[in-house]
């Protein structure tokens, strides 16, 4: 195997994981505490810094408390590691790793920039550019449920066990909606390679912001001659975005879907019996999963690393259509800015929206999102097929069939819900 490829891959793994993602995980916890403090009219962490007074200075350098994550990490490492006598020790120790590891592995298929040319070698700004990126992410991310379930079961205690069972039911339920919501996007792009999806959006407009394409922007006549379908598809793509984003909240156990660790009912949930760094690994897994979810939303719906609005072509491409050697680094910055914006959105929702009841959570997943995502597939397929089957056939047969399907789904759901209510009473 090419030695250059191995060296570049190792550098990408080390650089993206240890110099970008791990600091982002650490400072997501800082951002969480600062944002919630602003929302609740508190101060938040603002003290931890460099103790300059130890070296003869008059004041310590606080840096707005930006070194707080480092202090938290050191605290986790040096805190007493207590393993209760009643736990199933082997699984108890494995569970935190099973929770954190999948979140970091899924990052390897997300493109974080366009190709960079250094010393005559073109370097793809993605660790593993595979052709089934979304499927790989779903397959690996779904393994994290084993960590949470094992943590609850191995703790050999009532409340952690309830948290593990809740998590298992919740994550399986919302994985269905998550997968179904992605099918309209894959129908539109016709491919599963995330790099190709981002490149398509850089040229033809972001999926939820199609304001430009190869024929110009909204102010050009040629744009409107080839953009009717893009604008019609905004409805199914908007529904996919809503279902996908909400399901990501549920998959990452974030408020208002944090029922597996609901402190009002389950003490601390599945990690009640954990302490020190094993306890911290659960939170690393949660925040890493939040970062992966944010990165995936940005990649699929908002152009990934693309600057958008035609700026990529105007500023970062040569006359031959190739990327300039430094374009990948600018795209990396754009990708991180978008991802951080969605991380802040996750945090804002957590401290704004109240927690669901568990029956509401399950009903939303199985009764609302499952049917909505399924209907959305038919809607997107009809709009994509309309140019091929003709406008008249679409109006006469397509939309009436869609209405019939929607009505059938609605009445079947209502009938099933009525039977459940009869059994309960």
Descriptive report:
This protein has 425 residues and is mainly α. It has a domain at 83-358. 67% of the residues lie in helices and 2% in strands. It contains 16 helices and four strands. A two-stranded antiparallel sheet has the order 1-2. Strands 3-4 form a two-stranded antiparallel sheet. Strand 3 (212-213) and strand 4 form a beta hairpin. Helix 6 runs antiparallel to helix 10 and helix 10 (234-251) runs antiparallel to helix 15 (358-389). The radius of gyration is 24 Å and the shape is globular. The chain starts with a helix and ends with a helix.
Biggest β-sheet: count, sense, barrel? 2 strands, antiparallel
- The number of helices is 16
Distance between the termini: 67 Å
Mean pLDDT: 82
Helix content: 55-70%
Tell me briefly what this model is.
The chain has 425 residues and is mainly α. It has a domain of 276 residues.
